[in-house]
# Entry
Amino acid sequence: LITIKLKKNIDILASIAARYPHRINVGFAAETTLVDSKIIEKLEQKKCDIIICNEVGAGKGFNSNYNKVTIYTQHEKTDIDFGLKTNIAKKIIAFICRHSANCLLSS
# Structure
């Protein structure tokens, strides 16, 4: 019988948000069940401004060039439709820029 002792890592996202409270803190999550309640809880616990939730499952998420994500803030939930990850990344960046007074998006 092998025993492996695990040590809890620090919560990197929460520690960054605490250290830089005046910056926009963005996190990513992959959830499969109770998504809305889990993400709302993470927004509060980790002091994030935005969390992008990856939908994982057949043909999307991991090991695929396609995905569907939902962007959460304290006040809104925005779905980004199923598509290429490169296009989704551009939409995520545009969303973050629209929610930041310090970010300008050039066309």
